Amino acid sequence: MPFICENVECRAVLARGQVRSSYEDDGWCFYCPDCKVRNELKDISAPGSPVELAQPEKSVLPHKVIATARPLDDGRYAAQLRVQRALGVRGTYAVEEHWEQLGVFLDAQEAIAHAKSFATDLLERKA
Ligand SMILES: [Zn+2]
Question: What is the mean predicted confidence (pLDDT) over 32-57?
Fold first, then answer.
C-alpha cells in the first residue's frame, strides 16, 4: 500500500520507495518529498520481527482551518472562515467550505477567535 501525505493541500500518493522513513524522538515518520510535511508512521511488526511501517488510521481527516477578519467600511470586522478537508476516500481530493461573514465584531482578534471556534464545532460535529 502506498503512503499518502496527510497535508490536506498536498495528499501526494507516494510509493514506499519514494519516501525515506526515519526514527525520531516522537517515533517513526517520513517527510513528504513534495511538501516536506512530517507524516507519522507506526511499526506494526510482531515483536522481534523486522520493522514494518504503516500509516496510522486517523480518526479525524486531515484538515486546514483558515480564520480571518475582514475589515468593514464602518471600522468593524467580519469573521471569515475557510476550511479545507480531505475526503474520506484516500487520494488527492479535498473539499473546501467557506463562510464570508460569520458575524461582525469590533475587534479583529475577536472575529478570528469566533471563526476558529466555529471551525472547531464544525470539525467535531462531522468527525
Ligand atoms: Zn505532501
Answer: 93
CA atoms of 3 and 13, how far apart (whole Å): 6
Q: Distance from the CA of 82 to the center of ligand 1, in angstroms?
A: 20
CA of 10 to the centre of ligand 1 (A): 4
pLDDT score recorded for residue 90: 58
Query: Which residue ranges make up each domain of the chain?
Result: 3-54, 63-126
Distance 4 CA to ligand 1 centre (A): 8
Angle of CA points 78, 103, 61, to nearest 5° = 95
